[in-house]
Amino acid sequence: MELSGAEILVQFLKDEGVECVFGYPGGSVLHIYDELYKQEEIKHILVRHEQAAAHAADGYARTSGKPGVVLVTSGPGVTNAVTGIATAYMDSIPMVVITGQVPTAVIGSDAFQEVDTVGITRPCSKHNFLVKDARDIATTLKKAFHLATTGRPGPVVVDIPKDVTDPNVKVPYSYPETISMRSYNPKIKGNARQIRRAVQLILSAKRPIIYSGGGVILSGAANSLTELTRMLNIPITSTLMGLGGYPATDRQFLGMLGMHGTYEANMAMHECDVLIAIGARFDDRVTGKIEQFCPNARIVHIDIDPASISKTVKVDVPIVGDVDSVLTEMLQLMRNTDSELNQVELKQWWELIAKWRATDCLAYDHDSDLIKPQYVVEKLWEITGGDAFVSTDVGQHQMWAAQFYKFDKPNRFVTSGGLGTMGFGLPAAMGIQFANPDSNVACITGEGSIQMCIQELSTCFQYMLPLKIVNLNNRYLGMVRQWQEFFYGSRYSHSYMDALPDFVKLAESYGHVGIRIENPADVEGALKEAFALKERLVFLDFITDQTENVYPMIAAGKAHHEMEMSPKSVLI
Amino acid sequence: MRHIISILIENEAGALSRVAGLFSARGYNIESLSVAPTEDASLSRMTLVTRGSEEIVEQITKQLNKLVDVVKLLDLTEGAHIEREMMLIKVRASSGSERDEVKRLSDIFRGNIIDVSRTSYVIELTGDSNKLDSFIQALGEITILETVRCGSMGIARGEKSLHL
Ligand SMILES: Cc1cc2nc3c(=O)[nH]c(=O)nc-3n(C[C@H](O)[C@H](O)[C@H](O)COP(=O)(O)OP(=O)(O)OC[C@H]3O[C@@H](n4cnc5c(N)ncnc54)[C@H](O)[C@@H]3O)c2cc1C
Ligand SMILES: Cc1ncc(C[n+]2csc(CCOP(=O)(O)OP(=O)(O)O)c2C)c(N)n1
Ligand SMILES: [Mg+2]
CA of A509: how far to CAs of A112, A503, A512, A535, A571, in Å? Predict the structure, then answer.
């Protein structure tokens, strides 16, 4: 079959099973857009800013099990998308980003809308390619999808100069069913000896704890993780990225750990004797002061990326492999062994944990006249039956979402953890809704973050996406304000949010429904009303207590047992 | 500790900048780097000399291995190996005594004089970095006009080899 570069690109996407592409047109991708116009199989979603295209593809990928696909033009199209690419990179999200480039003949001449895309995206993508010949489009794209979705996933950029998609130059095309790369062979199966050592170490523990992370979600290992945790009857905590990997409402779950983790999770980390890290990367928000991290623990670490192992914390039993594969093997070994955990010690361990739990570290004021943000999230959880897809932006609201929406299933919580990108929430929610058209999708945001991609309300209207935007409006860059209160003598330097728009009118002007809620008594009703409007996007503007802080908190450089507690929690 | 790391990398545009970019982005120390295609034109061989604690060097090798273009990697420092660097050095050689002295030193260090003018010599010298440094020291009063050194190259001794 002889096709032009643009035809090959579109045909390849169909053959690869791509259903939707998030993009924005421009000069260097016009040949491709012309091909998109001529077909109906692939749905193109026109965003209002390229950053949003990448975030939407990100949200789509996290909740569909397929890679997100982005299409943008050269120059400013690429630079706008970079924030979204970097966001996906930090959270290991599978994504293929196709970027237009100036024609090969003028590359390097500061041509109109030229930017060194391969150079700019090199440090924030898993890999990138520049395609110089239409004959290479199909194999390069195949490599890109393969790289994006296997091993430790991540975004892959494919830069295609305009002449390479010229409609008048036809070259042969056949879909490459498979691809092999001699330089790339991620390890899936863990080393058998290491797995045996890990099982022995775990079964000899007196105070074990599982620290699970985003790798569990990416691996699709929630079931095997749950089975292992229940079988051993040991406590489990999760990173922000791992939430939903183990049911949050289960009694063995201690809540999130780390900077804004629960008292019980962080204390259990500090006191454990065996730490089982599963698909988690010992991020600084999690470890706190490295020298005092889990001071008494021997550590097992399962991760598909060798570079994640012993990067910041030296571990005793490293296992390189896919979480699901390794856990499945561990389960088998454990079923076939006579040894088991010392039940007397385990009982004492749970008793200690019960004491920590009794601090009620997430307690907040229920009698206030002001709307407490935690209350809004709690009600959202209730009203959606704990079963909505939730995206967030970045800030205090993000932490309250993590603490108070109890995710029982994986792939439900979509948040920018690694890069912490304000502006992520709304476009990510769009991607989620495209992947899950019949599900409830909520975006928990703040009045600061939402304004960073607010233009996407227009995209939402075009495609009639019935998102529910939960704006926890504290008229502050709350997370910044909190740090300034704690560490900068309450000097609130540029952390107020002045001259805010009337979000209700703003939503309405974009064609949506807006509701402002100012009384705690109206919270539940408004949420119910919003979710009853099945076909409409509803912007819920909750005017919340401006001074509320996120607790507990481990200040930067402090250790797990040095938490700042809520005035409402019970001191022990 | 000083480490000499050899890698086989796909001989593609941009491969070198991926390695260089990795070192600068992660703040790793890079002492020298040399690169050229191998007998298999699709592969380049790169030799990197770096310094760092064991933990850092472990991260460096892991991060290098993680680069999609890197096919194979060997930390030569882990076993017996040979290291070579080449230097071309241009020195002042006008007077008879200068010319004699340079010729003598060059012979002692097993160098070759590969260019001669009325006032200068160019000497070609290979060896490990220490040997080249010693030669420069030995030149003493002789005026050095120019030196050019390639980065270190290394190869394991015996059967062990870095190939596909
Ligand atoms: C304002 C703010 C506050 C934050 N506070 C906290 C906090 O209090 N607590 C907290 O936990 N986080 C917090 N974070 C998030 C934090 O920055 C990190 O993003 C997060 O802790 C990383 O999660 P993770 O370790 O699960 O790793 P991820 O980034 O999810 O990485 C996944 C790991 O799993 C591996 N992996 C991927 N796929 C597989 C597979 N198939 N098999 C095996 N391994 C695999 C990867 O190689 C990687 O090492 C905060 C972020 C923000 C923006
Ligand atoms: C793009 C970007 N710029 C700056 C920051 C730093 N930052 C982190 S949280 C935050 C405040 C967010 O304010 P808001 O969205 O209102 O959320 P709140 O903390 O008030 O809930 C800021 C500025 C960031 N994370 N991302
Ligand atoms: Mg705010």
Answer: 35, 10, 7, 17, 49
B25 and A121 Cβ atoms separated by less than 8 Å: no
ipTM of the complex, rounded to two decimals: 0.93
- Cα distance between residue A543 and residue A474, in whole Å: 6
CA-based nearest residue in chain A for residue B23: A123
Separation of alpha carbons A542 and A517, rounded Å: 5
The token duo for A143 is 């490599």
CB atoms inside a 10 Å sphere around CB B136: 16
- Residue owning tokens 């091909």: A35
- Cβ-defined contacts of A256-260 (< 8 Å, 24+): A256/A402, A256/A403, A257/A211, A257/A286, A257/A560, A258/A283, A258/A285, A258/A286, A258/A287, A258/A288, A258/A554, A259/A285, A259/A286, A259/A288, A259/A553, A259/A554, A260/A399, A260/A402, A260/A403, A260/A550, A260/A551, A260/A552, A260/A553, A260/A554
Residue with tokens 């790369």: A181
Both structure tokens of B50: 């770096």
- Measured between its terminal Cα atoms, the distance across chain B in Å is 28
A326 Cβ neighbours under 8 A, 6+ residues apart: A189, A190, A195, A302, A319
**Which ligand lies nearest the alpha carbon of A418?**
1
C-alpha to C-alpha distances, A77 to A5, A121, A281, A537, B106, nearest whole angstrom:
20, 13, 32, 27, 59
Helix then strand count (H, E) for chain B reads 4, 9
Residues 6 or more apart whose CB falls under 8 angstroms from that of A475 comprise A447, A496, A497, A500, A546
Q: Residue A445 Cα, ligand 2 centroid: separation in angstroms?
A: 10
Cα A156 to Cα A99, A458, B143, distances in angstroms: 11, 28, 53
A479 is catalytic: yes
Report yes or no: A126 at the B interface, CB cutoff 8 Å.
yes
A33 by DSSP, 3-state: which?
A: helix
| CA proximity to A403, closest of A168, A569, A182 | A569
Residues of B in contact with A123 (CB under 8 A): 21, 25
Pairing of strands B81-92, B153-156: antiparallel
Structure letter (DSSP) for residue A124 = G
Task: Give pLDDT tens digits along chain A (572 positions).
Answer: 899 999 999 999 999 999 999 999 999 999 999 999 999 999 999 999 999 999 999 999 999 999 999 999 999 999 999 999 999 999 999 999 999 999 999 999 999 999 999 999 999 999 999 999 999 999 999 999 999 999 999 999 999 999 999 999 999 999 999 999 999 999 999 999 999 999 999 999 999 999 999 999 999 999 999 999 999 999 999 999 999 999 999 999 999 999 999 999 999 999 999 999 999 999 999 999 999 999 999 999 999 999 999 999 999 999 999 999 999 999 999 999 999 999 999 999 999 999 999 999 999 999 999 999 999 999 999 999 999 999 999 999 999 999 999 999 999 999 999 999 999 999 999 999 999 999 999 999 999 999 999 999 999 999 999 999 999 999 999 999 999 999 999 999 999 988 999 999 999 999 999 999 999 999 999 999 999 999 999 999 999 999 999 999 999 889 999 999 999 988 76
Which residue shows structure tokens 């949050």? A248
Nearest CA to CA, how far is A321 from chain B (Å)?
14
**Which chain B residues are closer than 8 Å to A108 by Cβ?**
none
Specify which residues A276 forms β-bridges with.
A210, A300
Residue type, B39: E
d(CA B56, CA A148): 27
* Residue owning the nearest CA to atom 8 of ligand 2: A395
Q: Where are the alpha helices (DSSP H) in A115-188?
A: 117-121, 137-149
CA distances from A47 to A93, A456, A530 (A): 20, 7, 24
What count of residues does chain B have?
164
Alpha helix segments (H runs only) across A468-542 = 478-487, 503-509, 520-532
